[in-house]
Design brief:
This protein is mainly α and 254 residues long. It contains 8 helices and 2 strands; from the N terminus they run H-H-H-H-H-H-E-E-H-H. Helix content is 74%, strand content 2%. Strand 1 and strand 2 form a beta hairpin. The model has no long low-confidence stretch (mean pLDDT 77). It is a multi-pass membrane protein.
């Protein structure tokens, strides 16, 4: 029985080391989603005037639980080293809490993936026509420029979204430079501005951003779901080791 107890303790300590590493990964993914310039721009465009920015909420949950995992992993190690049923009990309780939070984050992202396809058409066109400006001062204008340059697209449904828009009425330009094929992306220099403004196919982006944004949201939500599922699997293993260790303590006391 002593061998079983020691084996359970060692396995739980090894697991918690892996658990700490998964916490770093979870924290990193959450921070990446909120700090990366391109991702922030994509989310600004997609979430503009949408009351429930689900991917943002899911990222905040990932950051919170990633930080909490450090504390829970330490608690599990202490419980295993000190042979404390009380600490192991708290450890198991918090594992269940974290699991529930990750499940909630997964549901939020799954809902978001469905809802984005219903709301994106109207919101993208509205933000282009009403919010995109010639002065390039607003956050939504800068975000749209980043999206159009990085995804090589123009407008929501297409370049025609700029017809009779606030941008066109103010500037007299039919599409912004970010819709053009660029020779210098850092300084927003078009390959051939006159050809772009005449909508010569090889000099501007003919495809709208809707499809590419939806594909981007889906691919990145898969990352969130994958990280959450992987961590959930680790937590189930940790829960089993914790239960086994508690039972080993019980038999050892007899």
């Amino acid at each position: 029985m002593g061998f079983c107890v020691e084996s359970a303790r060692v396995m739980l300590i090894i697991f918690n080391f892996i658990f700490w590493l998964s916490g770093v990964a979870l924290l990193g993914v959450g921070i990446w989603f909120l700090a990366d310039k391109n991702i922030v721009s994509y989310l600004e465009v997609v979430n503009h005037n949408v009351p429930n920015a689900y991917i943002n909420y899911a990222a905040y949950i990932l950051i919170a639980f990633g930080a909490l995992i450090f504390l829970i992993g330490f608690l599990g190690c202490c419980g295993a080293i000190r042979r404390s049923k009380c600490l192991i009990g708290f450890y198991l309780f918090f594992l269940v809490i974290i699991f529930a939070g990750e499940l909630a984050a997964g549901i939020i992202v799954a809902i978001y993936r469905t809802e984005i396809e219903h709301s994106v058409d109207k919101e993208l066109s509205n933000s282009i026509k009403m919010e995109y400006t010639f002065a390039n001062e607003s956050a939504i204008t800068k975000s749209w420029d980043t999206v159009q340059v990085e995804l090589k697209c123009c407008g929501g449904k297409g370049p025609d979204d700029y017809m009779n828009s606030k941008f066109t009425n103010m500037s007299g330009i039919i599409i912004p430079i970010s819709c053009c094929v660029l020779s210098d992306t850092n300084n927003m220099v078009a390959k051939d501005k006159s050809q772009c403004m005449n909508k010569v196919p090889e000099y501007y982006h003919e495809e709208g951003c809707k499809k590419k944004l939806i594909e981007w949201v889906k691919s990145h939500s898969v990352i969130l779901i994958g990280v959450g599922c992987g961590l959930a699997g680790l937590q189930i293993i940790g829960f089993i080791f914790g239960i086994c260790l508690c039972r080993s303590f019980k038999y050892e006391e007899k």
